């Protein structure tokens, strides 16, 4: 099973292999294809990820830790933006490393970590994390699984790259609201003050634009003492990635003498953070850029879950409970609840599983159709006949392909570049009313509840507060240790430092062939709205639309 990885190796080569002249030494990025032969790892040159090599030389490549040797005509590609992938240990995992200030700024001064003298850490058996510690991406390994990926473990290091009195930190919040943002602001401030003795922390108002167009807010432990009890963000926010203003943002960072930037926001915000980091690295500035990803939809890849997700699921219970009360109080009562979930249905799925009052959950990852055998209307009639009422939970991104009215709005996007969605909750409610009252001549009572923004505009619950505390402290430890251009998150319950490009490359989605979705189907006893072949192929059934926009059965 081939695996192509980039290795940063120290390479020695003579211009003429038969020459006795002194070898030339350089650090380069070599792309090697990994294959196994009788249990032995073979590394062969590979240039497939790129269209044209920039240099070809006879190589003798060495790595002191693994004694990797490549003696052949190899293709070398040098890339300014490539991050390190390092093979480590006999198990041969791939370390998705993160940048460090020392990678582009030579001769940096280091200092003993102040935590070693901190009374709070005196009871800790080992206050510093070993720099070689890693966190495995996957802890369940199947036969013939590809090489495992690891990440640097988060936590305090023995040495730090900033003196406490020299740190000038800033915190900015961007994108949509999410429960726990204020908790993160509080814990970053308190972590810097109480763990590392930092006295200069400021908040940037109004998102990325605040770097150059708004005032800054001095942040102290006293000033942020109670903010975790409030929803929203005390710093304000704005939509947009900030990549168009990169030069002005970095100019402001440089002019203000900021050397640690903590960026809280979703996928668009983290893409902007990556661009800001690249500009800072290009200028050679000693500035650590740390991202703390947020998404109430829980669609951030790699990490276990996004902060605020538990709170959103908990708050959604109130809407589902209200819909259930309304539905069961009338004959043929139907409650429809629309929840957040543009492309990922995690909130709807977990809220449904937690409630146990939901009869049908519809998410973007699992297409459905309305009419015909096995369709939604047939299931609604069956459930009303059996129980006299039912509750439907639908994610905001579900069924968009069924709404014929969206044709005029397909190209419209919001400030963050997200496609504007039609209100699928209102659309579905009207379709149900039309079908049963007009076509079926069946009296129903339908109540539609839309708590979309209510579930995110609330203070975080206890579990999210604890999670945010750990994320904030991990971010502070990483910045003080000199790491930069990374995001923090929990992976298999352990906190790690993750390269920006992995956070930004995709969205995490519900996998409808996994057990969790099967558990939901078992809980609601709803049909999958897919036949077995469709499920295997992970594709939706072929849907034929009438002139009224109704999807007909594929059977």
UniProtKB/TrEMBL annotation:
HAMAP family per UniProt: Phosphofructokinase_II_X
This protein's name: Phosphofructokinase domain-containing protein
Keywords (A to Z) from UniProt: Allosteric enzyme, ATP-binding, Cytoplasm, Glycolysis, Kinase, Magnesium, Metal-binding, Nucleotide-binding, Transferase
Catalytic reactions of this protein: beta-D-fructose 6-phosphate + ATP = beta-D-fructose 1,6-bisphosphate + ADP + H(+)
Origin species: Phaseolus vulgaris
Listed Pfam families: PFK
Domain Phosphofructokinase: 170-477
Region Disordered: start-end pairs: 532-555
């Amino acid at each position: 099973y081939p695996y192509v990885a980039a290795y940063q190796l120290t390479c020695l080569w003579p211009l003429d292999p038969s020459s006795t002249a002194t070898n030339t030494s350089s650090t380069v990025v070599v792309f090697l294809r990994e294959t196994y032969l009788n249990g032995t790892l073979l590394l062969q040159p590979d240039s497939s990820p790129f269209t044209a090599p920039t240099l070809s030389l006879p190589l003798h490549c060495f790595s002191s830790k693994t004694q990797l040797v490549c003696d052949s005509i190899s293709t070398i590609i040098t890339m300014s933006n490539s991050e390190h992938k390092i093979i480590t240990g006999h198990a041969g995992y791939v370390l998705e490393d993160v940048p460090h200030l020392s990678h582009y700024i030579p001769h940096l001064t280091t200092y003993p970590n102040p935590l070693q003298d901190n009374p709070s850490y005196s009871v800790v058996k080992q206050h510093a994390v070993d720099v070689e510690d890693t966190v495995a991406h996957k802890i369940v390994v199947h036969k013939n699984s590809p090489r495992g990926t690891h990440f640097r473990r988060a936590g305090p290091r023995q040495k730090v790259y900033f003196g406490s009195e020299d740190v000038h930190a800033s915190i900015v919040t961007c994108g949509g609201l999410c429960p726990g943002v204020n908790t993160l602001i509080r814990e970053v401030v308190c972590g810097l003050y109480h763990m590392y003795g930092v006295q200069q922390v400021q908040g940037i108002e109004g998102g990325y634009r605040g770097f150059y167009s708004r005032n800054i807010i001095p942040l102290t432990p006293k000033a942020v003492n109670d903010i975790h009890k409030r929803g929203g963000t005390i710093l304000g926010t704005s939509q947009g990635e900030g990549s168009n203003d990169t030069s002005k943002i970095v100019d402001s960072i440089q002019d203000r003498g900021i050397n640690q930037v903590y960026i809280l926001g979703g996928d668009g915000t983290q893409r902007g953070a990556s661009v800001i980091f690249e500009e800072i690295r290009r200028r050679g500035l000693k500035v650590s850029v740390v991202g703390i990803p947020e998404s109430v939809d829980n669609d951030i890849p790699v990490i276990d879950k996004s902060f605020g997700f538990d709170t959103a699921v908990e708050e959604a219970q109130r809407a589902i409970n209200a819909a259930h009360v309304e539905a069961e109080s009338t004959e043929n009562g139907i409650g429809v609840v629309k929840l957040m979930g543009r492309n990922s249905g995690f909130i709807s799925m977990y809220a449904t599983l937690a409630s146990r009052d939901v009869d049908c959950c519809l998410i973007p990852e699992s297409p459905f159709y309305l009419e015909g055998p096995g369709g939604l209307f047939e299931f609604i009639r069956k459930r009303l006949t059996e129980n006299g009422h039912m509750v439907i939970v639908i994610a905001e991104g579900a069924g968009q392909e069924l709404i014929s009215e969206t044709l005029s709005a397909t190209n419209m996007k919001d400030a963050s570049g997200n496609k504007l969605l039609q209100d699928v909750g209102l659309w579905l409610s009207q379709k149900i009313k039309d079908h049963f009252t007009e076509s079926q001549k069946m009296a129903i009572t339908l109540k539609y509840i839309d708590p979309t923004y209510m579930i995110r505009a609330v203070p975080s619950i206890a579990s999210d507060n604890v999670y945010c505390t750990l994320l904030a402290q991990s971010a502070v430890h990483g910045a003080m240790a000199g790491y930069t251009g990374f995001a923090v998150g929990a992976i298999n319950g352990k906190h790690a430092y993750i390269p920006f490009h992995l956070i930004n490359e995709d969205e995490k989605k519900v996998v409808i062939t996994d057990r969790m979705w099967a558990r939901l189907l078992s809980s609601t006893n709803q049909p999958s709205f897919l036949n077995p072949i469709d499920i295997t192929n992970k594709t939706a059934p072929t849907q034929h639309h009438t002139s009224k926009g109704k999807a007909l059965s594929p059977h």
